[in-house]
Task: structure prediction
Amino acid sequence: MHELSLSENLREIIETEAEHQKFSRVETVRLAVGQLSCVEPEALRFCFDEVMRGTLAEGARLEILPVPGLGRCPRCDRTEAMSELYDLCPACQMPLTVEKGLEIRLRELEVC
Result:
C-alpha cells in the first residue's frame, strides 16, 4: 500500500516546512492526485489520519484535488482523456503516452 509511504512523506514535508516557516498547526492539506497515479483516495485518507496522529497535522483536513488523465497518441498526435494507465488511441489503437494524471503534488497547506 503506497498510500502509507505517501502519508509518511507528507508528514516529513510538513515537519520540514514547519521548521522553515515557523508554524505550529496544520488545518488543511491540499493534495493534487492524478487519476492515473494508482492512489486510492479513501486508503490515503485513512493512512493520512493515522500517520498525522501526534503531529502538528493531527486532525488536519485532507483535501484531494483530482487531476484527470490526459494522453497523446505517438502515431496520430491526438490528445485524449485517459481513464486507465494503458488506454489506447480511439482512432488508431496505439497506446497513449501519458501527459497528465500521474502526479501527486502537495498544493497548499493552511496553517496557523
Summary: The radius of gyration is 17 Å.
